[in-house]
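G.,

No rush on this.
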Amino acid sequence: MSVMTWTYLIVGLSFSLYIGIAIWSRVSTTQGYYVAGGGVSPLANGMATAADWMSAASFISMAGLISFMGRDGTVYLMGWTGGYVLLAMLLAPYLRKFGKYTVPDFIGDRYYSDTARLVAVICAVFVSFTYVAGQMRGVGIVFSRFLEVPINTGVIIGMAIVFFYAVLGGMKGITYTQVAQYCVLIFAYLVPAVFISMLLTGHVIPQFGFGAEMQDGGHLLDKLNGLSTELGFSPYTSGTKSTIDVFAITFALMVGTAGLPHVIVRFFTVPKVSDARKSAGWALFFIALLYTTAPAVAAFARVNMITTINGADGQGVLATEAPAWIANWQKTGLIKWEDKNGDGRMFYAKDDRNEMTIDRDIMVLANPEIAKLPNWVIALVAAGGLAAALSTAAGLLLVISSSISHDLLKKMIMKDITEKQELLYARVAAFFAVVIAGLLGIFPPAFVAQVVAFAFGLAAASFFPAIILGIFDKRANMQGAISGMVVGIVFTAGYIIYFKFVNPAGNNASNWLWGISPEGIGSIGMLLNIVVTYTISHLTAPPPAHIQELVDHIRVPRGAGAATHH
């Protein structure tokens, strides 16, 4: 069967499964809508967290970034994985014990202030929209290539599917859908990786293949370094970023991760605090399966891409004899060829010889085609990419809708609405959130992983200090937290907007503050936020006694009462 037939079959089956789960798990209470009734097992929650966590950026974009950037691309790998550990160890169990559905709920109650809650709602919605734009773009890319529809049509189809199961089932529908999506995405990521590893190096496990000799002689990374330098790129295993920028980006991604509202909410869906810890452990295992495979996938894709475009002799392949994958991706506009010297040959390089423009977001999706794997594997990867994008988009849309219905309406504007009305408002908010997310996917601000990196920087500079000081510093008060969040997000967003939109020509290391790029500036925003919060908290009145007792209660295990009973 053709790739298209296989894709319709596999994507159709997976979508039917997601919709079936949504109908089976539809909810009628706000507790079911926001936290799945708190009855999800740690294993299932670990899988759902992993699917929520591994977005289109992880599945589609990350290996593509590493493939094009070499060692510099690994900041995404380290930042996102390290951040998950930080979240699981430092924040999740305490927030679970506090027992609130949403991050703005925690910040509003801990800092006894509706203003703090409002700032947190604005940050949550802003960060979630920035992040969801990348997911919708990923959905559009998959649809445009494999179902041969325009990217914009793909985005609209994705919007409809997410809206259906996020609105019908709420967190319960999303949780069990994400379990299914995790199974689809991890299978789709590992199968081609195993195949390609065996073809190139003879190793079944891609992680071993990454550091091994190739079948046709020579070490994989040595060959990549050689190919890169011949073509004018910097060696694959040496970085061009300054050490401070690598640290800043990694740190911004780490603390941004730990402040991401849609992942934190997952820890409220299990029955007990100990289950939050267990599900964090399971999630880390499930995430590691993909994250340790990504560098190998990136290297295999890079070698295969260069050798298929430039030919075995390195002179470039004749356009008339070009591999089918190039023509297939040219239709989507994500690969372009310009015959500069008129010899009819395609050639890929960094310098003046280059005739190819290749979008880095296609590397994972095109990988099985480049390696000439069977059609069903190509279709499987398409279904995996969609599962990754849709699972995260659904989690983010739930955060946006709950921030608006629960934190803004129920807690601040219309305090006497019934549970039924709150659920209706949550669903209406989800509808508008889906529409805006779709528009952001159709008119994207930048390529997928970069947009996501900005979202993490903004989360790092706004949420993280308020959460961490709220748990570990009894003296942190309302005035401190509000000032800190405002300073952090205004500084970070201002820096990003300046270098990305106001003065993109000046976006280089010589103009950056201490050599830190816009992707990494969230770490400075975060430090500013902590300093401002801490200083103002100590210059103004301490929080009320009951808030200080509450902070003690969150941190001290004994006497937790209801939180530890079945």
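When you get to it, here's the other one too:
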Amino acid sequence: MKRKNVCGFEKVLPRILGICLLFVVSAFAWPWSSKSVAVDSAAIRDSLKREEFKELQREVDALARIRLQKADSLEKLEAEHWRKRYTETQLTEEHQVETRELDGRYSKLSTDLGRVNEEVLASKDITTDAEDKAKSDESAYENFNTQVKLAVEKSIGDVAGDYPVGMNDRMIRLKKAQNDVDGKNPNTLSAMREYLNDLLDRQKLTYTQSYGVEKTQVGSRPDVKVNRLRLGTVFLGEVALDGSADGLGEVQALLRSGALQGKVFEWNSSLPAEMAIGIRSAVNEASAKSAIVKVPLDVLQNKAVKNSISDSNELTWQEELQAFFKKGGIVMYPLVLVALFALLLCLERFLVLMLRGRLTPRFMKQVDALVSEKKYDEAAKLCFKKNTSLSMVLFAVLNKANEDREIAEKSLQEMLLWEQPRLERRMGLLAAMGSIAPLLGLLGTVTGIITLFTVITEVGTNDARVLAGGISEALVTTETGLVIAIPVMILHGLLSEKIEKLTSELYARSTSLLNKIFPKEG
């Protein structure tokens, strides 16, 4: 663009110079003759035309050069264009080749991906089925382990009330089984094996018999050597070998206790003489390996042997009381506490009513005499010294004797509202103790009957007297609760009547005194 502007200026410049030269020549030639002027003008025009032609020639040459330059540039650009187009064509062909290769690979990969997806779905289905089966097996295993655990725990709970022979070995075996099922990785098969072995040993103990020398505790003597005869789980008798019982050997037998607390078997060495002789003879006959041994008691023990033995011994009243308390079970303790607390409340209320509710005629005569003489201050001091409910109520009236009747009545009402709750205090608690005692007794009875039926379910019985005996033991707490509640309610009634009588006396005496001091209202 700059080059074009310069060429245009060079084209105009000669013309401008020619015109200027023409004016200068005209100025100097003005006085000359017209012919010379015309010749010079023609020469000048020719000169200007030649200059203009030269200038035009130069412009044409410049334009030709520019055209040649533009043509060269255009040829170069066209060559560059074709070269780029050729390169682009090659790149397009290469791209098409690569695209076809990629399309082929993509098609192959799509096919492979579809096949892999199908395999993955099939694998997922197989995995899901395997997981469901594994969860089902795991749940079944856990249920089985839980059942074994519950069976082992029940057996451990039953051992304490079961036949005591071999109890230590059974507890060790069952504890091992319990540890196997309670572990972080439970060994259910091992626990099941120990549990079944325990059942087999218990079954074997039931249907076998044995005789031999053992170490046991006879009475309060530990580690005594005895001859022991066992017939299954229905009879176990021992005769001491230490020369006790006049050299014959002390005798003891394992008997059913019939207790409700789960202890079904107990050792008893306090046997009647006839029964002790019979057991000693049976053990001695067994040592001689006799074919038949006579046992001197009902081996099924359906006749409450323990109770009949215990009843044959005379008990002191302290022992009878202890036995009665023991029959009631754990509920007897709160019953005793209720009885003691109710007794303390009754004593406290009797003492309070005796001290606060004294109504002596001599005191009332003194007060009436002082009121008649209008010595209200002295009467008030006398009432204040006594410190009883009546004296404090009368003091409230006498203290306001110099005021009007309305103020005295308000003072009286305030003192009555203060004294009446003090007289009735803890009466509601005493009534609650009388109501709680039979409820606790009923609770003990229900608990005892539940325990009784639990023992019957586990051990079983075919003797109605055992069932009746268990129910009688369960009713001990109800009897105790009624024995406590009846006297408590009677004492509560007596105290309530005394409080009502004392309250009425307070109202009557205070109103009478108020009328004496203020005979007219207003």
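The chain has a mean pLDDT of 79. The CA atoms of residues 235 and 491 lie 54 Å apart.

Enjoy the weekend,
O.
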